[in-house]
Amino acid sequence: MQWEAFRAGDEATWHALVTDCSPRLLRMATVLLHDPVHAEDAVQETLVAAWRARLDFRGDAELDTWIIAILIRVCRRLGRGDRTWLRKIERWSGALVHPSHDEEVSLLTYGPLYDAIGRLVQRQREVVALYYFLDYSVADIAVLLVRAEGTIKSDLARARRKLRGVLSDEFEPSKPRSEETFS
Length: 183
Fold this sequence. Notes:
Rna Polymerase Sigma Factor, Chain: A, disordered C terminus, 10 helices
């Protein structure tokens, strides 16, 4: 079994797992943190934490689900944390931080949908990211986030309602301006 090899520290299994789940982790982190640079940091931190905690994995869930649960905890912590230290380091080093050139991340980073998702509360962003970006079912999300299925459905409904309102404002045809005369 893959998880047994992972727990045993098999590097080939670990490499295959990282290769397989990294794009999904990056999408999820980008949606949750609303920042591709911090998302990449969160993925790195998640993978390090997963490797260090591999002996704690019991095989009760899928391996990638377990890693996504770690990612959500990392993103929650980073989302609450003070990021001024990172800005100071960037300013001090003179480094320009450029968003990832990965097409999916670029679409998420610069699109109105991404901005709208960023306006959701954390728990709604998590549910939206898991449901729409990672294709998890409501039942799987409930297990992953340790919430009732009804709560997940409510969070999804509230998120959809808020997104509909924000996006309809964004894409509503502009109203004609009154005629102005210039001399």
